[in-house]
Amino acid sequence: MAIAFLLAGDPTWLVAAANLTYLIGIALPNIAVWLLRRNEPDLPRPYRASTWGIRAGLVAAGGWMLATVLGFEQYGLPTVLFGVALAYSGSLLYMWRVISDRRRTRVATHVRSMHVKLTGAMLAVLVIDGAGYLLAVDHMPRDDAALVTGLQDLFVAVALLTISVGLVLPGTIAHSSSEVMQSADRLATGTLRQLTSGLMALSRADLAGAHVRVIEPRVVVHTRDEIGAMAASFNTMIGEIERAAASLDLARERLRMHTEDLESQVVLRTAALEKANGELEAAKLERGRLLDEAIDTLEKQRRSIAADLHDGPIQRLTAIGMMLDRATLAGRRQDLMSLDSRLDDAKGELQHEIAALRRMMAGLRPPVLDERGLAAAIADHVRAEGLRLGIAVRIGLEDVDLDPSAETTLYRVAQEALSNIARHASATTLVVTLRTNAVAGTAELVVEDDGVGIGVPDLRRLVRDGHFGLAGMRERLEMIGGRLEIDNPAVGGTRLRATVPGRVSGIPTGEMGIPATMLPATVGTAVASEARA
Amino acid sequence: MTGRSLRLVVADDDDLLRDMLSGLLGDLGYTVVAAVADGAAAVQASLEHRPDLVLLDHRMPVLTGIEAAGRLRDELPGLPIVILSAYDDAGLQRAAREAGATSYLVKGCTAAQIAEAIEVACDGSKVAGPRAPRPPATRPAPFHRAATPG
Q: In this predicted complex, what is the ipTM?
């Protein structure tokens, strides 16, 4: 360049043009450094200039720009154009470098990028500005030097402004746009895709696959214009997506906890169900054994009744028939003495047999149940057992209105309970009560002793061991809709409570809902103590 | 009453009935040579007294009447046997017949029915001799059941 200057006779305009480029060259880096610090405050840097130094550079750049505007128009338009062209030559080289880099890294060359468009527009403004200047100066009278100078200053000012804005503003806008664009790209191809995958996994109940962890860097834009507002909105959107992802993660975690809780509950319920099934099976087996036992007992009873009929009434009646036959024969022989004797024998045997049949009938169903009622029947039996065993008895029995089957069942329960007490309890006192529960519509027989107590009996085990007494009681009661409870009072002994439903037609009640049958003056109503025999 | 004094063995475990049956048979003109309380004793008494007929209750201890009838069929073939049972049961009647019983009476029958059964059984046995197998019946089968009185 220096040789070219010497060969060209060291033209002053060329030196001025070079200085113009130089001034532009030293003014713009000051502005670029200021923008770089503002846009990329976190970039690593070998040297950090002080803030006042940057501000001084900006002031110097302004001064140099002003000097350019005021000082270079005197060298004429060619000088200015040449200087501007020199200044822009660097931009062309930069553009060439950017395109080369993008091609090497296979990144699309954004010919239609905002940066290119804005720079092109600025160059167009510069060209139009120059054309306007040439047209104005060439058609203006030469003697109007002041006007020409003014136009030249305006041209230079517009040119410098265009150069400055054409270089700085597109870069700034393009940088911000690029930041937003890259962030949007990451969001679309990364975060949103993860979120979608997470939601789809959740819809498939794939809790492990529904995990989404979004940490998306925010877009850093320092301008306060529309680009800045767009970046702020974009950052808000990123924040909302992060919240959505966090909510999804929380929902997934809660769902997982609920699922685990549900699974543990299912395990517990399954175990409980299996246990209940086992108990049900055991209960069915027990019921089957009891049913077999009941059928067996019934069969035994039938055999016993048949045997009793064979050995008793049939033989007696046959014998009586033979007595009568003998009486007939005696009559035919005119043996009146023998006739009388045979008839007396037959009559006596007949009375004996009638009594025997009555005893048998009483064994099948106690006649006292029909004749005097359940309370009297139980009272008689308890008193008789008390006397036989030599233990004190207290009886509190009300007349109750029950179906015959319930009466017989309660009577048999009382018999069985007293039989157990006689065999196992070693009791000294026995308390038997029978009362109605008007509210529940039930009747309740309680047999309580002060003996050794049997604890809470395991009926299943008792049945297994062949003891059917208590289990049979319970079975009898349950067959008519009643229930059996056995416990041990704190004072000792055993308390057996048998509850049966009242008559379907209802238990008659007196005032205040008290059953009329609970009124005094019925057999055994008052609690009576009977001394040991 | 019957004009001939047949010798009988009676077996019944009921004392009153046994006594009454023995007395009735005596009143009817039969001679009760032994009155016992079980089936085995009836077999033993029959072997000992060689009666003209044995009258057995069915349900007795040691040996039932039908079991005793089976023994007697083997020990004393042709001996008339009358079963006097409380059971009006076709199966028992068949079992009694198969065991060799001549008649099956149900308790409660009249004295006349008992006498008829005894006479029929003894008459049938006398046709072919006391020890020979009885011939096929030429008159109403001797095995019959007395109607239930009533």
A: 0.76
Residue with tokens 């009258």: B55
Q: Is B142 helix (H, G, I), strand (E, B) or coil?
A: coil
pLDDT at B132 over 60: no
Nearest to B2 by CA among B123, B135, B126: B123
Among A155-164, A248-257, A458-467, B74-83, the range of highest mean pLDDT: B74-83
Please name the residue of chain A whose CA is at the shortest distance from the CA of residue B1.
Answer: A329
Distance of CA A42 to the CA centre of its chain: 48
**Distance, CA of A411 to CA of A385 (rounded, Å):** 14
* CB spacing of A311 vs B14 below 8 angstroms: yes
In chain A, what percentage of residues exceed pLDDT 90? 12
Cα–Cα separations (whole angstroms), residue A392 to A135, A378, A386, A489:
145, 15, 6, 18
Alpha carbon of residue A444 to chain centroid: 45
Does residue B131 surpass a pLDDT of 70? no
Per-residue model confidence as pLDDT tens digits over A56-105: 888 888 888 777 767 666 676 667 777 777 777 777 787 788 778 878 87
Cα–Cα distance for residue pair A98/A166, rounded to 1 Å = 17
Q: How close is the nearest chain B Cα to the Cα of A356, in Å?
A: 15
Alpha helices in A422-526 (DSSP H): 459-464, 469-479
Query: What's the pLDDT at B76?
Result: 92
Q: Going along A251-296, which residue ranges are E strands?
A: none
Q: A113, A82, A83: which is closest to A98 by C-alpha?
A: A113
Which of A6-20, A170-184, B25-39: highest mean pLDDT?
B25-39
3-class DSSP assignment, residue A419 = helix
Edge to edge, the sheet with strand B7-11 lists B31-36, B7-11, B53-57, B81-85, B103-106
Give the residue from A440, A439, A438, A420 showing the smallest Cα distance to A430: A420
Which residues from A are below 8 Å from B1, CB to CB?
Answer: 329
- Nearest Cα of chain B lies from the Cα of A362 at a distance, in angstroms, of 24
The residues with which B53 forms a beta bridge, in sequence order, are B8
The set of long-range contacts for A307-310, using a CB threshold of 8 Å and a minimum separation of 24, is A308/A360, A310/B59, A310/B86, A310/B87
Point out the residue among B17, B107, B110 whose CB comes nearest to the CB of A325: B110
**β partners of residue B36:** B11
Q: How far apart are CA A153 and CA B12, in angstroms?
A: 163
Tell me how many helices (H) and strands (E) chain A has.
Answer: 15, 6
Confirm if A485 and A478 have CB atoms less than 8 A apart. no
Q: What does the pLDDT read at residue A456?
A: 67
DSSP string, B66-91: HHHHHHHHHHSTT--EEEEES---HH
CA distance A326 to B27: 7
Token pair recorded at residue B120 = 């029929």
Q: Which of B1, B17, B27 shows the shortest C-beta gap to A318? A: B17
Cα first-last separation, chain A? 151
Angle between helices A374-389 and A404-420 (to 10 degrees): 10
State whether B86 and A349 contact (CB < 8 Å).
no
Nearest CA of chain A to the CA of B77: how many Å? Answer: 30
CB contact, 8 Å: B111 with chain A?
yes
- Residues constituting chain B: 150
List, in sequence order, the alpha helices (H) in A310-364. Answer: 315-332, 336-364
**Alpha carbons A118 and A139: distance in angstroms, whole number:** 31
Best CA proximity match to A508, nearest among A415, A443, A409, A438: A438
